Amino acid sequence: MALSFATDSIVVPDHVVTRVIKGTTVLLDADTGRYFTLDESGTRAWAALTSARSIQEAYDGLLAQHDVAPDVLRRDLEALVDGLAAEGLVEIRRG
Amino acid sequence: MDALTLINAIVRGDEGCVEHLAHVDGERLRQLARQHGVLPLVADRLAGWRGVPPAVSEHLQAEARGFTAVDLLREGELRRVLDALAAADVDALVLKGAALAYSHYERPDLRPRDDTDVLIAPEARTAAHAVLLGLGYRAHDHVAGTLVSYQAIYEIARAGLTRHTIDLHWRIVNPQVFAGVLEFDEARAAAVPLGGLGRHAHGLSGVHALLLACVHRVAHHRDDDLLIWLYDVHLIASALTPDEWTAVVDLARHRRVLAICRHGLRRAAATFGTVVPAIVFDDSFASGEVREQTTAFLRRDRAQLATFVSDLRALRDWRSRGRLVREHLFPPEPYMRQVYAPASRAPLPMLYAWRAVRGVWRWVGRG
Fold it and tell me: How far apart, in whole angstroms, are the C-alpha atoms of residue B152 and residue B64?
């Protein structure tokens, strides 16, 4: 099911813990022991997504703060959310 | 510049050493840094410096992220353990690396450790044991008794992998000559909160932490110059106030470990440039020279037999000495089976005899 930016949001499960180190984020799935790393742009996106009420709100904030083409940001954000969800690092809450 | 000297310089923050990175074997550098427990520190320093060869930096950063992941995993487990101990009214202090990671290091993942050391009062052993088993931890079989050892190891695993190891202590170090160096009640009274681990997490005060950092590497590890241990001493010492330095000297002198503390501080100063105030080395207020028995542990070629003899001498009566001998010679059966005959049902007396024979060679060997 495709993301609906306006109504969907993400939730971080309790078993996922993170630490930001010098602009990158290490995400650990404590249940499986697998860990992942987000680079600086991924870290900014993660911070926006986890603090926003919807993916749209995160998108709007990132677009306002960074010099990026809207369609590129939209595509990258979709890919990031899909990727995180596929690894069980976030859950997509459908609006 | 050889790899170890380069690692020292990096951890010290000497950015001028970057030029030498092009001439050192990157894998050797990582291996040594890992061995000395300072890989995350080295990676962290280099991440902020210019001119670092990308190949060196990328491998270090990748490995450092692994350390971060492990640290995150252990942090969650430690919080769970401390909360459960508190719920069972077991007062506990986090010691050594696990504590310093939160009290003295910029980030906890910069202080790698293989396990988490926790100190409890001796009378809380049974309760703590029950709490840990209740959380799913498994107790290691070990040489147990009332005199032979003052610690027990617990491990929790999932999917066949160890996730966290608790080294539970009811005395800070094992050798008898160090008995009374720091008791639980005294340590607890001066304990400090460890903010990143929840409201039930407390560690040693700076004064006590320095004492332990200096004593531990000598009492248990033959004065091993592992860089992370020396860096611990450096960080703790660098954060002390003048009043705390006075307290360190008074306590170390009173507990007969002043020579050991001076030695640890000299090693930290030589390696990391630790500034140590003159009061540490000033004997003008001492009432004559007191020979500290603990200095015998500064010999790096010290045989295990020497520690045993020291333990016998430190005990006050022959009954205790006899008990210590028995505990060394006849550990519990589960330990004997696990170590000496994991796949057989050999008679226990035979296993004890084999242990005695093996022990002679191991105990008399030096270094």
Answer: 29
